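Form 7-S
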Amino acid sequence: MGIVTFVDETTSGRRSDGWGLEIAEERLTVRELIRRRVFEEVAEYNARTPEVFQGLVQPQDAERVLNGYAMRTARRLDPETQTELALRAFAGNGFLVLVGDRQATDLDDEVELALGTEITFLKLVALVGG
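Output:
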């Protein structure tokens, strides 16, 4: 069992401090990595229900703000719904997944998770006018 570090970056250069998640397997698909990440962040949000959700993808009925997504009404998030949104965002090039220095290009790609692996979620920002 080892700790994998999830880091968020944007094309504008912003980078999160990262956070760790224990994963027992040595290999997982990109789909499963995204699912586990989303389930963890939704569980943390649902335990506290703050005004702003800091997660991989924007929940339905939420507004994008500086540090996440402001919820219009306080409610619990469904991890399955958030996972589906994240998987669609990955498939639609909403973000890239880098495992170490290797880009994962398909949800069914299996990646090795050596001790201390850093997984970067690079959120792509649409350019103005194009």
